[in-house]
Amino acid sequence: CMARDVQQPTLMCAWVVPGLKEKKSFIIDLASWILGEGKGSRLYRTLVDELELATDLQVDVYELFDASLLFLHIDPIDEQSIPQIKNIVAQELDKLSHEVISPAELQRAMKQTQMEHLTLFENNQKIAYELGKVFLSTGDHNGLSAYANLNHANLDTHVQDFFRAYLRPSVMHTGIIAPFK
Which of the two ends of the chain, N or C, has the fewest CB atoms closer than 10 A to its terminal CB? Predict the structure, then answer.
C-alpha cells in the first residue's frame, strides 16, 4: 500500500496472462468483458450497481510478446471497503472457473469484443500498428484477420479454462494507493 496526496483510493489487481505469441487475445478480451469491462460485466454490476462499494472499475490488458498483463482497476468508495472488494473479486474468479458462463453473458462479451476489433479498421494508424504488432509477435501474416476464428461451440469452455489457468486468486497481485491519514 502506498499513501499519496489523493482524495480517491485506488485498488489495482493484476495477473500474468499469455502473450501475443500464444494467440489468445480473443479469449483474453472475452474474459475481460465478462469479468469487469463495461457496465454489464459481473464485477461492475456487483461492486458498483448492487453493493455500491466502488464508483468505477475497468479492465486493461497490456499486450507483450511473451507474457501480457491483465489489470483490474477499481475506484472504491472508501479505503475501508478494499478488503471486502478483494474478497468479492476472489469469489467471482472462483465462480468463473467452476460455474458455466451463461450464453447471454458470453454473447454480450463476443459482441463487445468483435465491435472493438472492427473499430481498428476505421483508423489507418491503428490498423498498421496492430498488423505490425501481431506479425512481429507471431510471424503470422493473417494473425489479425484470424483474431476471432475459434470454434464458437466450445467458446465458453475456452474462456472458463482461461479463468482456471490464469485468473486465480492465488496468483492475483494487488496494489493500493490510499490517501494520507
Answer: C
State yes or no: pLDDT of 6 exceeds 90. no
pTM of the model: 0.91
Contacting residues for 122 by C-beta, under 8 A, at least 6 apart = none
Nearest CA to 162 out of 47, 37, 30 is that of 30
Segment (H or E) for 179: strand 173-179
- 109 vs 152, which has greater pLDDT? 109
Provide the residue type at 88 as one letter: I
How far is the C-alpha of 181 from the C-alpha of 179, rounded, in Å?
A: 6
| Residue 135 pLDDT exceeds 70 | yes
* Contact call for residues 96 and 34 (beta carbons, < 8 A): yes
